[in-house]
Amino acid sequence: MITLKGTNIYLRALEPEDLEFVYAIENNESIWNMSNTQTPYSKFLIRQYLENAHQDLYEAKQLRLAICKNNTFEAVGLIDLFDFDPVNNRAGIGILIQNETNRGHGIGKEALGLLIDYSFNQLQLHQLYANIGVDNEASLNLFTTFGFQKIGVKKDWIYQNNSFQDEAFFQLINHQH
């Protein structure tokens, strides 16, 4: 699929071979606050999820794609459209590069650019939104690079490390649709 191929990376559908990768991400407690996860996932549940990953965006209301470096099948991250709302033409967007050694090299930036382009040009969405912890400088910089604007701050939204943290709400409007 040319739409989801960039200069250095491409986005692909999840495959059964991604079981260990998705299992490691979903059970990494250090990132649970970003995905509103509170309990671990079994390999059985993740295998079932991967078996149903073929569902249409309109049916599942989400699209999760693996981020891969060109010339390799191995995933280095995940990027998602979630809470897809076809009536109001909007979706949430989230991204995670699993290994810190792959961060800061433009992988996330290229993946986010591809998914924004796909969302606005193929899906003809009117808007995308993101929820970002106010102390997550890397994500704040990444999303604002693409023109996401901070709409507001949800006070004491995330409970982490025995304290409440604020979460910012960002929006990107597609003025062509």
Task: Describe, in plain words, how this protein is organized in 3D.
With 177 residues, this protein is an alpha+beta fold. The chain is globular.
Features:
single chain, 177 residues, alpha+beta, 28% helix, 34% strand
Write the SSE topology.
Blueprint: E1 9-13, H1 19-26, H2 32-35, H3 43-51, H4 57-60, E2 63-69, E3 75-85, E4 90-97, H5 107-122, E5 127-133, H6 137-145, E6 149-160, E7 163-173
Parallel strand pairs: 4-5
Antiparallel strand pairs: 1-2, 2-3, 3-4, 5-7, 6-7
Helix pairs in contact: 1-3
Q: Number of helix segments?
A: 6
On the 0 to 100 scale, the average pLDDT is 90
SSE order, as H and E?
EHHHHEEEHEHEE
> How would a crystallographer describe the biggest sheet?
7 strands, mixed
Task: Output the radius of gyration.
Answer: 16 Å
Concise structural overview:
The protein is an alpha+beta fold and 177 residues long.
